[in-house]
């Protein structure tokens, strides 16, 4: 069976994102073996409350991935980490499906301070984007103190066009026009000129993994030869 890793976004978990949205079952039905991974500080296992302990999320992720992956599917923060690993070791994780990522890859996480304040109870009124991310995080059962520490970590991953130019994996970038986090994505597409790109209407950032169009496109891309 072909192993495919599924890497969630900030605030998520394997079970709350991929399993809950039907990816696990859909991949198995097409002959793939899903590999469930939680990013450090996420999920029921919890983690450190110290931001310094999240100074290299990609290395932590690499230790959790099998060496014989056929491919990997990421969402948001998960896509950033997959691209970091691709820059370090081109082609090592097979075919890559990158959802919910755009030119924000090259910028600091803009809503981070507001999210931290909300997680710590210092913010009573939540802007729509923050409210959506908090709702997404609430489904994962993650410790809010861990999630705040992840947001306050030393900046990582830090990716540039020069580092992305080393990418060798077949890549699909999949986004939504309504995704205020990942749009625009022209700079990322220019940095990965060989990547396929699909853009759909009608789905915001946190709703992308529950959209069957994303799931179907990802499986179709994994099935390409």
From TrEMBL:
Domain annotation AB hydrolase-1: ranges: 6-215
Molecular function per GO: hydrolase activity
Keyword Hydrolase on entry: yes
Pfam families: Abhydrolase_6
Keywords assigned by UniProt, alphabetized: Hydrolase
Gene3D superfamilies, per database record: alpha/beta hydrolase
Family annotation (InterPro entries): AB_hydrolase_1 (IPR000073), AB_hydrolase_fold (IPR029058)
Name by which UniProt lists this protein: Alpha/beta hydrolase
Source species taxonomy: Bacteria, Pseudomonadati, Pseudomonadota, Alphaproteobacteria, Rhodobacterales
